[in-house]
Amino acid sequence: MPSLRNCPLLRPVSNSVGRAWCSTSTDTVAPRVRFAPSPTGFVHLGGLRTAFYNYLFARKHPNGRFVLRIEDTDQERVVTGSLEQIIDTLKWSRLEPDEGPCAY
Hints:
This protein is α+β, with helices and mostly antiparallel strands.
């Protein structure tokens, strides 16, 4: 079985999960990255860091998109006002999503 390491069209990249393989050609594909916090409280520093890296990655590429997607699957732990707090934190840090509940 051929290895991805020997493919001239792919290069290794690091992301929040680990290593992945990414095409070296960015002319044809515009990245669409997301920040998906759960509205169960305040945004912590690690989450804001992830949003910041995703935002920079999207802005680095032409037509890149930064998406805010609220993960509301854990309805029992939802905290009233946390969605507004997430939006306010992103505004404060000047991370403007292109899509999402608050594409301001």
